[in-house]
Amino acid sequence: MTTRLVTIDERANIARALSILAQHRIRHLVVLDERGQVVGLFSERDLLKHIAMNAGGQGQQAVRCLVKDLMIKRPFTVQPNTPIQEAAKMMAKLKIGCLPVVGKDEQRLGIITTSDVLKFFGNQG
């Protein structure tokens, strides 16, 4: 699990989200509401999917959208005591690249990514 969580407000624009992704060299942002609660996930893939579905020169318009318009709402999450093997199975079954780790009242604690899973299993044996 990565505990140095990079987040974004759901009201931020997509250009800001892309800037944060590039700055931190990451693929996923945990999206927070005004109370700091996890309400979604945003990735470059979400923007690419939006552009592909609205093809025809809409790229500039898509960058002006808000994160809340393109994010994955109510993402699958895991608890801090979830074994990494279980998280990995869940990610593979659901075909997702990350799982936010939340505590009581959806308190954000971290994120498990495919990179975390690969590092864990790569260090086994």
Overall structural class, as computed from helix and strand content, comes to alpha+beta
How many domains, in number, for the residues? 1
Instruction: Report on the biggest sheet.
Output: 4 strands, mixed
Mean pLDDT: 88
Which properties best describe this structure?
4-stranded mixed β-sheet, CBS-domain, 125 residues, two-stranded antiparallel ribbon, 40% helix, alpha+beta, 22% strand
SSE order and pairing:
Layout: E1 7-9, H1 14-24, E2 28-32, E3 38-43, H2 44-53, H3 59-63, H4 67-70, E4 72-73, H5 84-94, E5 98-102, E6 108-113, H6 114-122
Nutshell version of this structure?
With about 120 residues, the chain is of the alpha+beta class. Helix content is about 40%, strand content about 20%.
How would you characterize the overall build of this protein?
It is built from six helices and six strands, in the order βαββαααβαββα. It has helices at residues 14-24, 44-53, 59-63, 67-70, 84-94, 114-122; strands spanning 7-9, 28-32, 38-43, 72-73, 98-102, 108-113. The strands form two sheets. Strands 1-2-3-4 form a four-stranded mixed sheet. Strands 5-6 form a two-stranded antiparallel sheet. Helix 1 links the parallel strand 1 and strand 2. The two termini are 20 Å apart.
